[in-house]
Amino acid sequence: MDKKIEKQLREKLETEKKRLTKDLSAFAKKDPKMKRNWITRFPFLGMNRLHSDESADEVEEYENLLPVEYVLENRLKDIEDALDKVKKGIYGKCELCGKEIEQKRLMVAPEAKTCLRHIKKD
Ligand SMILES: [Zn+2]
């Protein structure tokens, strides 16, 4: 891959990583036990208040945030994987066929793991 383009894509990845980390930090914290795992914070609930209306709202809010956390966390993982590949010098290779991923695809999704050939079949 062209070094200039790789640099550009790496910068995109770094920016996205920062943004996602910031978004996640607003309501989740890093799991100290599992690398790259995030835990949605649930600091407000005392078990003795479980049946009050206020707590019901908190439970609902928590449940609403879980899928958001899941999506952000997985995207962040993909981005960190891509940055690892940049470091190892194997960035931009398709994980399924080993060919170079199309540049136009990487421009839209720099964290892509596979080339466009496989997408249409999925
Ligand atoms: Zn491929």
**Strand order, largest beta sheet:** 1-2
**Spans with pLDDT under 50 lasting ≥5 residues?**
44-48
Please state the oligomeric state of the protein chains shown: single chain
Identify the bound ligands: zinc ion
Write the element-wise H/E pattern from the N-terminal end onward: HEEHHH
Shape: elongated
Taking the sheet with the most strands, its summary is: 2 strands, antiparallel
In total, the number of domains comes to 1
User: How much is the average pLDDT?
Assistant: 88
Coiled coil: 3-30
Pfam families: zf-dskA_traR (PF01258)
GO molecular function: zinc ion binding
Domain Zinc finger DksA/TraR C4-type: 89-116
Describe the structure concisely:
GO terms for molecular function: zinc ion binding. It is built from 4 helices and 2 strands. By secondary structure, the chain is mostly helical.
List the keywords.
zinc ion binding; two-stranded antiparallel ribbon; binds zinc ion; mainly alpha; 5% strand; 122 residues
What can you tell me about this protein's structure?
The protein is mainly alpha-helical. It has one domain (3-90). Helices cover 57% and strands 5% of the residues. The chain has helices spanning 3-25, 53-88, 103-108, 116-119; strands at residues 28-30, 38-40. A two-stranded antiparallel ribbon has the order 1-2. β1 and β2 (38-40) form a beta hairpin. Zinc ion (ZN) binds at residues 94, 96-97, 99, 114-115, 117-118.
